[in-house]
Design a protein that fits this description.
heterodimer, A: 257 residues, alpha/beta, 2-enoyl-CoA Hydratase, Chain A, domain 1, 2 domains, six-stranded mixed β-sheet, four-stranded mixed β-sheet, 11 helices, B: 264 residues, Lyase 2-enoyl-coa Hydratase, Chain  A, domain 2, three-stranded mixed β-sheet, 9 strands, 49% helix, 15% strand, globular
């Protein structure tokens, strides 16, 4: 059982992780990250889960790393703590992953949201990387993913000056997919997850991989990577089903094969 | 409530907030601005409050920023940082009124000048006594209209009239304000309290939660294109459809009886 998260299956094909340390504004301590990694690993292996959502509560998605765990730590302590191992589980999660963000989404919280494939934000969401105020800096992708998402000028201001973005600003700058009223953000995220979960799992996996490669490879290699995944899908049963259903004007039934 | 410069009085579902520095025509000093922010915060938290009246004690509604308190600062050799002042006081107050998910009625008993007029405009509905008047006083002391004036006034009365008020600082009567669409109704001076209470009493029986959604939808639509406003209406309607009061409204309609709304 989990102590810091709640795991649910709220919709067909959709797994949900709620970060649940409300008194700490869902600060991501190591125990929480371990539990999150365990839950995602289970989702990854479960054919019944075809898309996943991570959320917090209305007040905070996650207000950062747990600063208490950093007091007195040396660089060697940090290096040996194995603390970023769990983040690799998030990064390599093979199925569509959506962050449903309301309230504070700061530091490690923002890095976690950006590690997801899409973000649905409540009007109340606030995004930032305020590590600089503690004389530290982002360590779980904040300088890299944020820059890719919003561009250099704004990323620099967020990382160096600690500027927060409103939900609308995050939308305007391409950090999030939707901004919706706070009463509805989780439902919208689950709607989106359910919509995605109805697609063919193998196509989702290979398409997600290919999009992520766009941030890693030069264009020519990225195009080749894409093309190979495209060819690969032609050996799937679901591809036959998808194309037949389209031509026969009926709903496809995908099996993940 | 231990306020110095305002009165906070609840009667049934109606909360009346009275600006209470009558010897200064209720000009807003720092204490009043802090207290108003707090009062509107309380109004939001208190589920018993389902309608709010904002009015003034004595002859005036609110003469705007208390310039005496600005002058004191200048005499102390200091500088008045208007930008910081607005950001800390009026700006959050105006947003708090606009975002209060309950109806707010201005009962304008006398002059509403400068930021005092902004307070009136931030309310949802405006009643004025015959002797009330309105002016964009800012230019008279060499300042720019603030506290949301430039956003709210042209939306209420159009750009031409807003510019006229702002550039000349001319005072308009309650009757003129009514003709221009700045306010909803003019009533005899001695009937203002009664009329405001009657209107607030009606609104306190309304489906309060839904009124909050209507306010949100209106403010959203004020700055967005039609397609986004349509989407936002759909979201708000989804929420309204889940309220107890909506079900009550449906039932009452079908049973041909007046509804009893609980504000939930």
């Amino acid at each position: 059982m989990y102590e810091h998260i709640i795991v649910e299956r709220p919709r067909p094909g959709v797994g949900l992780v709620r970060l649940n340390r409300p008194k700490r504004l869902n600060a991501l301590n190591q125990a929480t990250m371990r539990e999150l990694a365990t839950a995602l690993t289970e989702f990854a292996q479960d054919d019944g889960v075809r898309a996943a959502v991570i959320t917090g509560n209305e007040r905070a998605f996650a207000a950062g790393a747990d600063v208490n765990e950093m007091v007195g730590k040396t660089s060697v302590d940090m290096l040996q703590s194995y603390r970023f191992k769990q983040w690799e589980v998030v990064r390599t999660f093979p199925k569509p992953l959506i962050a449903a963000v309301s309230g504070w989404c700061l530091g490690g919280g923002n890095e976690l949201a950006m590690s997801c494939d899409m973000i649905v934000a409540s009007e109340t969401a606030r995004f930032g990387q305020p590590e600089i105020n503690l004389a530290i800096m982002p360590g779980a992708g904040g300088t890299q993913r944020l820059t890719r998402a919003v561009g250099k000028a704004l990323a620099m201001e967020m990382v160096l000056a600690g500027r927060f973005l409103t939900a609308q600003e995050a939308l305007d700058h391409g950090l999030v997919n939707y901004v919706v009223p706070p009463e509805l953000y989780l439902e919208k995220a689950l709607d989106l997850a359910e919509q995605v979960a109805a697609k063919a799992p193998l196509a989702l996996q290979l398409a997600k991989e290919a999009v992520l490669k766009a941030f890693e490879l030069p264009l020519s290699e990225g195009l080749e990577y894409e093309r190979k995944n495209f060819y690969l899908l032609f050996s799937s049963q679901d591809k036959e089903e998808g194309i037949s259903a389209f031509l026969e004007k009926r709903r496809p039934e995908f099996k993940g094969r | 409530m231990g306020y110095e410069t305002i009165l906070y009085a609840k009667d049934g579902g109606v909360l009346t907030i009275t600006l209470n520095r009558p010897d200064k025509l209720n000009a807003a000093n720092d204490t009043m601005l802090t207290e108003l922010q707090d009062a509107f915060k309380q109004a939001g938290r208190d589920d018993e409050v389902r309608a709010v009246i904002l009015t003034g004690a004595g002859r005036g509604f609110c003469a705007g920023q208390d310039l005496a308190s600005v002058e004191e600062r200048l005499h102390g050799g200091g500088r008045m940082d208007y930008g910081a002042h607005l950001r800390h006081t009026y700006n959050p107050l105006i947003l708090r009124i606009r975002r209060l998910p309950k109806p707010v009625i201005a009962a304008v008993n006398g002059v509403a000048a400068g930021a005092g007029m902004s307070l009136v405009m931030a309310c949802d509905l405006r009643l004025a006594a015959e002797s009330a008047s309105f002016l964009q006083a800012f230019v008279r002391v060499g300042l720019v209209p603030d506290s949301g004036s430039t956003w709210m006034l042209p939306r209420l009365i159009g750009m031409a009239r807003a510019a006229e008020m702002m550039l000349t600082g001319r005072r308009i009567s309650a009757q003129e304000a009514l003709e221009w669409g700045l306010i909803n109704k003019v009533v005899p001076d001695d009937a203002l309290v009664e009329e405001a209470n009657a209107l607030a009493g009606e609104l306190a029986k309304a489906p309060t939660k839904v009124i909050g959604y209507i306010k949100r939808a209106l403010d959203f639509a004020a700055t967005r294109p039609l397609d986004e406003a349509l989407e936002y209406e759909a979201d708000m309607q989804e929420l309204a459809g889940r309220t107890e009061d909506h079900l009550e409204g449906l039932r009452a309609f079908l049973e041909k009886r007046p509804p009893t709304y609980k504000g939930r």
